[in-house]
Amino acid sequence: MNQKFVSIIIPTYKDWDRLSLCLNSLNEQSYNQDLFEIVVVNNYTADKVPKEYFIPCNCKVITEEKPGSYAARNTGIAMSSGSIIGFTDSDCIADRDWITNAVSFLENNNDCDRIAGRINLFYHSKKLTEAELYEKIYAFNQDIYVNEDGTGVTGNMFSYKHVFDSIGLFKEDLLSGGDYEWSIRARDAGYKIKYAENAIINHPARHNISELITKAKRVGGGQAGFGKSPNKNRFKSIVKFLYDLRPPIKSIGLISKKGKDLRITEKLLVFYIRYYLSIITAREKFMVNLGRSAQRR
Fold this sequence. Notes:
The protein has helices at about 15-25, 70-80, 100-110, 130-140, 140-150, 160-165, 180-190, 210-225, 235-245, 250-260, 265-290, and strands spanning about 5-10, 35-40, 60-65, 85, 95, 115-120, 155-160, 195-205.
């Protein structure tokens, strides 16, 4: 394998404890440590690196004042040196061969400019909470994202640097969905993506319904931000809002496929949560379209 220099970008926001686990996993990578760097972007200026905090020798910590993980990622890209850019999140734990397998996949697939790697969930305990049951079905279906939309999430994504040079960086005013928006631009520009099943990141499942609600609001704000400006035409906004309130019938197939080991009551619960969250997302999108600021947390 013709090994190339890789930059791993990790935005963080008040998350030093979980970031420590992430950095430890990157410190144990099978990929030659002289051939990759870690760029941690602290997105909260008042939150300094804790004393005696472990930072690998190939890692640098920088700060980005503008709020939002995509603004932080853009700063990380600007400070990076790799011909390949990899992304993960501060609460993720990388498989030991994560970078090795990602680079190998890119090297062996000449028709591929980007990859979305597999994201495995891990849970607090054997008995799953309602939120974890939902996450089991809906969280990080990278293979589906790749096959249906040509997209991938930044929890586990690699791209050649020249793609960013060509189409630009993330839309940093978005607080959610910036990876989707960028992926669509890359896809439409002809930069192909493939799913790399053996490039593995481990991600904690959201444990509480409140966490799912927070994310649903961020997603709604992000969807509203995909447009060039807020749609202040109340009639059009109301029509779109009513359209977004339709029941998620297409979800039934996914729940049946990924929830084969779930009881019927659990499947119904997951469907109910999906519908409930879609209403929250729709309402947030509606409010932001009318001019309200999108919420970060």
